[in-house]
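Quick board copy: two proteins, each given as sequence then tokens.
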Amino acid sequence: MGASDQVVFEQLATAIDDWTVQLQAAHEELGETFASAIARAGSRAQQAQGGPEPPSGEINALREELAARDARIVALGHEVAELRANEAAACAECEALRRALEHAREQLAAHSPERFEELEHLLAEERDHAGVLEAQLNQAREECERLRMQSDAPDPIVTDRAAPTGASHIPAFDAKGHKRRMGEILVDLGVLTHDQLMEILDEQIADPQRRFGALVVERGHTDEELVARILAAQSRLPFVRLSEIDIDTKVLGKITPQLARTRRCVPIAIEDDRLRVAMANPLDLIAVEDIEITTKLRVEPVVAMLGEIEAALDSYYGGR
């Protein structure tokens, strides 16, 4: 109960007490008035010496007034009792509210709003992390299945002639077998400095739709082939030069020109129920799924340079 509430209840109790005292005084005054009227009536009767009876009308009126006053006093007494009961109930309710408020303050002190926000943020991060892990797990399952199938088939044509500097050994994974980021690999290969890496990352943050490898090539730090080779090493997939292989028209017919251009891919070989497809982004699972649904074949991705894929599309499927 607050200090202001306590003052109000004390004032209310004082007013009720004063009211009770006034009612008692009025009752006593009315009794005295009635006794005085009776005495005056008796005096007149004695003075009349056998004359007419005392004026009973005045006495009856006083009696009725006294009865009405008594009834009013009783009613007011009931109201006072009810007010006192309400006062006690209100005091109890205020005390319960005060205790609840103190408990809430203790909880708020123990768990501040900043802490709640921090916990919610951590929960959201954990959910995002779980989603990323699930996506990586699904991707790993897909890679394991493709690698298993590739182990049973002859290797596609892979050429290493005039490979870019540093491409002979690409450190795509760390000592624990975790895939490294392309920027880290390029720094280790001496292609990028740390400052150049930070500049490109800032640019990618400003425009998330741009791919890191494309930005590196556009800035002139390396060529498209090294970026494609790094992507192939990260994906544990072969790298091919489309400009150095001939593709059977029967294989090309497995994918429509529209699908090939939409997904930026070129089929290069077919064996049994497996279709080997050159892609600039072999981790585009949606593209892989579209091709498998359309061709009714299992797709084995290989990595090729985007420039060579676009040139092959124009050469084999005709210009737009």
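And the next:
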Amino acid sequence: MKKTIVTGGAGFIGSNLVDALVERGYETHVVDNLVSGKRAHVHPKAVFHELDVRETEKLKELFKGASCVFHLAALPRVQYSIEHPLETNEANVTGTLSVLSAAKDAGVKRVVYAASSSAYGDQEELPLHEEMPAMPKSPYALHKYVGELYARLWSELFGLETVSLRFFNVYGPRQSDEGAYALIIAKFLKQKRERKPLTVTGDGTQTRDFTHVEDVVVACLLAMESGKVGKGEVINIGSGKNISVNDIARLVGGKVEHIAPRIEPHDTLADTRRAKELLSWSPSVTIEEGIQSFLRQ
């Protein structure tokens, strides 16, 4: 039985990935400090380790014998990183360096890194493709981009296989709907359940490429297995379609209330050709299907 590690495995994307690994018969270990993850989300057949990813020596011991480490642990959210740049840099940059170093020292074959489409910032052209220069507009976006650079460098310097997946606005089961930084679809659904107005930042014309977590999990598994990656490649994982926040609000249904805009890219849209070429991956869940599955719950 192959051993795999998922950092951030008690979180939204991580716990969905852990479920898939366990179901496929992998010996799956979860590393999470439970700052934002939930112990209840961890599959009962996974081995849980309450650790911070900056505890490099402990990670090194745990990583021994692992074929793949999925590094998803992070302090996410753009606005939070603007308000807490030192704290988030420690978690997102130092934490990533710690994971890569531990993986290298433990003899791990491959690290799959959860990067972010926020690294693109605002670009003059859409769709966003991997050859575009990074233009981060927040500390969080910068942190995730620096992680990509570290991953590629660790491949070049030490021969550690790495691949960075730039996730685009992931949504789905276990998505957080709590606090000021809740992800938009989960936030709208919670407001609808509570019969409150859907709060739209700015004028709502900003567009996002929303990607269902089921599709993201499949991409992670393919990135672990593909013989075409491992040298620090950066690959977009998005639906290849974008939709405005106003249209999301219409799909969810209910009264809308506009609130102050935030510092964020106005539009995102993934070019997914590289994912198809290197991972044989393509998205399967449409935004309409994804939201309808939520509304039926």
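Board note added afterward: The mean pLDDT is 95.
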